[in-house]
Queue: 4 jobs
Job 1
Amino acid sequence: MEIEILACVPKEIREILKCGMTGEVIMVNSSGIYLRFEEQIVFLCDITWGLVPIGIAVDGFKKMAKQLCLEEGQSVTFRDNTLIFPKGTVQLQMEEIIPEKECLRQPEKRYIKQAAMEVAALQKERGISMLVEPLVLGKKTNTVIQLNPYCAKAYPYLVKLMNALSHAEGEISYCVDKMLGLGTGLTPSADDVMLGMLYVFRKFPQKYSQSVCSFKENILELCDSHTNQVSSAYLKAIIQGAYFERMEQVWNGLCGMEPLDISKLTQVGSNSGTEMLLGMLVALRICGYDVSA
């Protein structure tokens, strides 16, 4: 069986996938299919998700997956823009990707506060997104840190990390060591928060450069040993400049370039997208956007 399908493939993935490269299916879930080619993780997902950092977004993903009966452990080969599986092949018709544009506008406090309040209003009892109340909105911690053990564990490390990044102090390595892999799910909660932070720091290359560089270096050094391979792949991709369409849409909303719609991110996973947004808001506070008053 041969399927011809439109696909959006980031240049980073195009550059990694070489003709004749062989890999395997490592995970199949409702969001998509994870493939591993040598040390690179690739995520096959539906095009409605937009561009994701390690993803190949395909049109008609569900139909494709059903026809090919994709399962964990199956082999896959990439050759001539084609993914070759045991029960069929997928010919990728590459679509041109618009690169990330430089934003000429700055985030606005009213939109940052709006996003923070909307995250808090979700009242998620799992994950650590409710830490938005003390970390961004400046509310008391008592109720939130008692919400679940991950909130209680993550809170002191996030406070230390925020202080360290703001003042270029030496606790960055300690905090990264403690936070990587903290939480449940395919991408642990604290990893998602740090991913959102990293994305925002890319927007301010001249601010806190020394501490942010240390933050990135420590994540790169520790992520393979401290968290799972999927989460590690996402963190590395963001550090290396990969585009994340839904996060970019929220960023544009925070800058007033388009209507702010946090659901662009909060719909990602059960908690992951919301925690990524928490990371974005935390990074903005570190960069001087304090909406806690």
Job 2
Amino acid sequence: MGRRGEISFIVQTIDCIICSPIFRRSLLRVPGVLEVRELPITNRIIVVFDGDRLNAEQLRDEINRVARRGGLGGKIFFPSR
């Protein structure tokens, strides 16, 4: 495994507890994603990835694709660090 990266995003919906499994299942299938952690109280999802296999921009694109496919397009945002 290479260098670890981390990206988090917030789902702006009351049903985040329901949407979390959608993101977990889909993102864990992406080569290079190591871990998906949900924080349902804050509607935040954290994705840990292998930075040698995947970069943050590719991962953001995949997260947005999963959101659109799950009916959550326009309801997620990536907070700045």
Job 3
Amino acid sequence: MEQFIYYAPIIVVVLVFLIQERIVVTPEQLEKKHREIIRDVEKRFATLNSLDDLKGQFFEMKDKIDKIYDCLIISK
């Protein structure tokens, strides 16, 4: 116990430095940053559902173009 009392000022200074330089964060700060990251990701990237919907629309467009092409070839 005496060793802790002897080193207490150094320990306090180190802890204050770590907290002040934000090397150690609280769970609240971590949760806030996590929400910010998720918001940024939602703005910049497409979700898997929207990507699947877009693929389906491209497939439908391809089918329609193929049908139009077939109609043009048959009518000649």
Job 4
Amino acid sequence: MQSPKNPLYPIEIDDYPKLFDYVLTAEGLIYFKTLKRNYILGKQMALDEYNKLRLLYVYYATANRNFKEVFAWQDICITLDEKGIFEKEMYQSKEDLKNKLLIIENPHYQSGLYRKYTEFVKENMNSE
């Protein structure tokens, strides 16, 4: 179960920047805004672009400690799944982002922190 105020509960907002192994570069931020705009405008995108939107969105939202944007990222993931656009070949999409220097290693990354959130979600789904 999600907290109505904290979409990644039980992770505290101050720990959001530690959740993921990569962060956006300035060029990555520009590319993210382009992908997000294309998505909002309903433009046709390739699977690779949807994968990159998912990745860049969560990096963006958590690095900025922004609840609203994390909720929007979760909503996009759900909406894409409902449209039959599932995460496939994410590894290649992420490698491309790394190779183009649109994302770089996160110096604040804390391994295992995101697992704390996913385990919490699984436990609560099983109890419902």
